[in-house]
């Protein structure tokens, strides 16, 4: 468990919310955020930033996290909204929705609860800490990153059935060389983030 989490418990906080997003840099689809609460002093072996885990390991840890957490919530903001308000604001919105929904679901008193947010400062009524690389440094946030990643990867597999020409099952919507070439070949779909594609479409 991270020293920050231990110190927060020692200061009297009963619950910590870990918050992270996935899909921020993707060219396609939603940005997805997860907020979750673990039991006090609860630790899951092998948890780390989801980007440092294999898909199989993420799936395995995802089940353990979901089965043992006090509660979790996932929120998505779609590509059209991303294009309207920009990805930074959309990411903050997804994170805020995830936290708000989690608090509503768990009905936990907000006076002894604090959120640790990866790299963003949110408009919240509860205490929060914004920490760069929290998904790699804080256990709660690492868990949130895994749950968000597994959820969005499963979405990408479903989206792949609707848009097989872009090989989303493989690239998860990110700007790989192959994905960019497929966008140039087939054009952008209605789920691509048009604000991300200006340079790609301009050179097509």
Automatic annotation (TrEMBL):
InterPro entries of this UniProt entry? RNase_HII, RNase_HII/HIII, RNase_HII/HIII_dom, RNaseH-like_sf, RNaseH_sf
Keywords of the record, alphabetical order, are: Cytoplasm, Endonuclease, Hydrolase, Manganese, Metal-binding, Nuclease
Binding-site residues, a divalent metal cation: 20-21, 111
Cofactors demanded by this protein? Mn(2+); Mg(2+)
The answer to whether the entry has keyword Metal-binding is yes
The catalytic activity, as recorded, is: Endonucleolytic cleavage to 5'-phosphomonoester
**What are the protein's GO molecular function terms?**
metal ion binding; RNA binding; RNA-DNA hybrid ribonuclease activity
Q: Pfam family example for this protein?
A: RNase_HII
**Main subcellular localization, coarse class?**
cytoplasm
> Which Gene3D superfamilies does this one have?
Ribonuclease H-like superfamily/Ribonuclease H
Q: What note does UniProt attach to the cofactor annotation?
A: Manganese or magnesium. Binds 1 divalent metal ion per monomer in the absence of substrate. May bind a second metal ion after substrate binding.
Query: Can you name a GO cellular component term?
Result: cytoplasm
Compartment(s): Cytoplasm
Signal peptide limits: none
GO BP of this protein: DNA replication, removal of RNA primer; mismatch repair
- Residues forming the RNase H type-2 domain are 14-204
Please state what class of enzyme this protein is. hydrolase
Q: What is the protein's known function? A: Endonuclease that specifically degrades the RNA of RNA-DNA hybrids.
Tell me its family. Answer: Belongs to the RNase HII family.
Recorded protein name is Ribonuclease
* Species of the source: Soehngenia longivitae
